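User: quick one
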Amino acid sequence: MKKLKPLSAAALAAALALAVGFQAQAQKPRDEPIQPIEPAKVTDPAKVQLGKKLWFDPRLSRSGFISCNSCHNLSMGGSDNVAASVGDRWQKGGINSPTVLNAVLNIAQFWDGRAKDLADQAGGPIENPIEMNSTHAAAVATLQSIPGYVEEFKSIYKVDKIDIKQVTDALATFESTLVTPNSRFDKWLKGDNKAITDVELKGYELFKSTGCVACHNGPNAGGNMFMKMGVVQAYKTDHPAEGRSAVTGNEIDRFTFKVPTLRNVELTYPYFHDGAAKTLTEAVDIMGRLQLGRTYTKEENAQIVAFLKTLTGDQPQITLPILPVSSDKTPRPDPFAPIVAPMKK
Amino acid sequence: MKKLKPLSAAALAAALALAVGFQAQAQKPRDEPIQPIEPAKVTDPAKVQLGKKLWFDPRLSRSGFISCNSCHNLSMGGSDNVAASVGDRWQKGGINSPTVLNAVLNIAQFWDGRAKDLADQAGGPIENPIEMNSTHAAAVATLQSIPGYVEEFKSIYKVDKIDIKQVTDALATFESTLVTPNSRFDKWLKGDNKAITDVELKGYELFKSTGCVACHNGPNAGGNMFMKMGVVQAYKTDHPAEGRSAVTGNEIDRFTFKVPTLRNVELTYPYFHDGAAKTLTEAVDIMGRLQLGRTYTKEENAQIVAFLKTLTGDQPQITLPILPVSSDKTPRPDPFAPIVAPMKK
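Assistant: Done. Structure below.
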């Protein structure tokens, strides 16, 4: 073996400085239009636990069969992986279920942004006649009949009587913990050069240079603006959703939707508000043509798809809650009960 | 303070022997017709994990919406807490969903015992036209299109091609871990005198002395024999289930069902094969009159119900699995697809 010459103190110091310099350079966070997802900060764990129970509790629905998790399944990217969700009595959902993951980062909730935040959103499906098809009054009466819930609401909200605001607050608090940090793309954003491959990086460069990033930016790679579906070329669909104009009443907002997050997009197929695009390849192709007036080559499309798959983060680890047991006074739901009020078509 | 006289060595030894004797007596397991549930022994954790994924995977159903957990919900005592389950296209289930908890201890599976074990059972709902309404071929083809599953089946079963036997084997392996040890009653059985109250003990004494235990015995407090529903007095119902005669072809078995477990019965309302009894009070009253020819007083009924609630054990702690992602080749389920074959009425 060759004997190494001992380094002088000065040479050693220089080498160390260089190494530290490289290290700092390698780990320097990148300044990009997409920012990393940060882990959830849980400040009220008891409320999160209560919200989790409500999230999985089908007794919030008329039938006793459908829970929040039915259509925003935390085993499947917080979505249901079907174009239109199944609602009460197998009614067809009005729009593709958006993922609950990272939804807390969105500018507003629902595709048309009609709810300003998660709590505002959470009350919607409970009363929607084609979703859970219950009423806030019925849902609260059920919870009030369950001693385990009464105790938890009392301990957290200091109340004897549960109301829907506490229910949606607890749900929203749980949902706000459903974020997905540590995707490979986020590691790259934080300075780990090896976290994504050359092909994935090329895909990201294309994503930026061809304009996708104009709408899909921020920590959620989307979710922070409204945009017309079909900017350059009209989107052809027989789906009835009219988009943001239903909220604003402005004709100019017709077919304008909240830009969906691309976080975990590998898990949240099918795509678009009508769930018409079955694969990422198809979605990228349609977006390129309709929004950007550009037809991606097969190779470009594959590169962008490869990049999109780096946006899958750590999925929330959820221990299934054991739901508080109904009392003898709790209404016994009957999914097959005769229809009293007519359902919305 | 009074000064204590030091004990002689002999007195100390005698006192110790007495204390140890009391201790031994207090902890001596009881010899009773119901035996404690033992914790699950997991010998193949990878197979349990695969089975858990399949358990929660709605892609085993035609619609992509119904999983095993839909009707045997592990948040709700392994049952769905409705009289009749919701199946594909909201069809009404043929019989009340029995709990999956401790089902491994049953003599056979289904109310009529037509499946000899859990693996034999697991294939049933997938193909049942009023339940998941898929076929084994379709379910396996879906799994085979999902790289994450292909890899797991290969690693566990050493196969490239998945078949339904491996699917049901993995499901059964997971289900066999779903046992509920450490109920208060089991602690009492193991010698802890303070684990149940005097009222609960009175309830258990009544449960034995009036004959309930004749059918509800063994570790599962049931599940180990078939018995006619309506021994002393006929059970009046318009429910079409005919019971064990559908399996044996013997008229004598008409209206004979597997005796359900009473483990976690507090969580598995409503009761009986038709789910007609909404509360334990009602179930105990009907059972007393129809099976034993006895009308329990209100006090006796309450005592038995109190005892039954001591049978709730530790519920399985389940971390929700993250399901392997579909590939572009995976069939995209459509809950609302036109009906091709006629459904069973």
